[in-house]
Amino acid sequence: MPGYEAEGLGTGLTASYYNNEEFNGIAVTKIEKGIDFYVNYEEPTPGINGENFSIEWKGWLRVPKDSNYVFYVKCDGACWFEINT
Questions:
Q1: pLDDT tens track, the chain, 85 positions
Q2: What is the pTM of this model?
Q3: Are residues 57 and 63 in contact, defined by beta-carbon separation less than 8 angstroms?
């Protein structure tokens, strides 16, 4: 079985954007190569409110070696960060 080095890189994470804080309704979905943005009351993506929205990212994270890693999440409302759920 090949290791991740032989598998090639993915295209990013699947992002689902919702026009509410409850992850309800029809989502605007796209592939994100990275998660690093500042909304400042502007649309996080076309068609989504600049306030009172929610975003869910799904995908795989490959790390180069067994080690400890640190993730940072900063927001002005409620935030959840889950891995392996």
A1: 345 455 556 788 999 999 999 999 999 999 998 887 777 888 899 999 988 899 999 988 777 888 998 888 888 778 888 887 6
A2: 0.76
A3: no
∠ CA 48-49-54, nearest 5°, is 75
Contact 54, 22 (CB under 8 A): yes
Task: Please state, in angstroms and as integers, the Cα–Cα distance from residue 32 to each residue in 6, 40, 60, following that order.
Answer: 23, 19, 12
Look at the alpha carbons of 12, 44, 37, 82 in this order and tell me if their dihedral is positive or negative: negative
CA distance 26 to 1: 39
Per the DSSP assignment, residues forming a β-bridge with 31 are 14
Nearest of 37, 30, 32, 36 to residue 12 by alpha carbon: 32
